[in-house]
Amino acid sequence: MMNNFSKRVFDLSVAIPFLVVLSPVFFITALAVRITSPGPIFFTQERGGLNGNSFNAYKFRSMYINNEDPNSPREIDGGHPLVTPVGRVIRRLKIDELPQLWNVIRGEMSIVGPRPTLMQQIEKYSDKQRRRLEVLPGLTGWAQVNGNIKLSWDERISLDLWYIDNYSFLLDIKIIWMTFSVIFFGEHSNREALDAAGIRRRGRK
Question: Alpha helix (H) ranges present in the chain?
Fold first, then answer.
């Protein structure tokens, strides 16, 4: 069972030191974004948090300024032509997400939890999917370390719900450790995790 106070203490004990230790990475990334393409350093987007309450999630900008709807649910991978050369690198290494450590410190996000989604998506949630909103959204999560964009939306939802139902401090530590593996070796779907969440992948290997 999730203890909000202990999880909050854990979040702050991770986020604050990370912000300090990674400050050179922040500086270098901000400089690279600024000098390689016109536009702001940061990209801000409204996302849904705990109980569906909205907040502004921060990222390093990884795309050229364009006329695309920023609230479109369509996922854009690192190979998209609108993604800048620097953007491809910071997306691959998950550096673009690091400004969300500030969201963690503000109490809008947690280090580990379901990834925050667009408000338009939340409006279409089923009762089952709305369970994702019972906890703070995370900087990383069980779905992210077990396939992420290689999974369908329903598969990611099921993994998120499995995390909520099976939360423990040790599970959070495991997810953080697995996140580093994803950063270095890339995303791969995990059949074992999908089976544990009761997911059947029809016609997929």
Answer: 4-21, 23-36, 85-92, 100-105, 119-122, 153-165, 169-185, 191-196
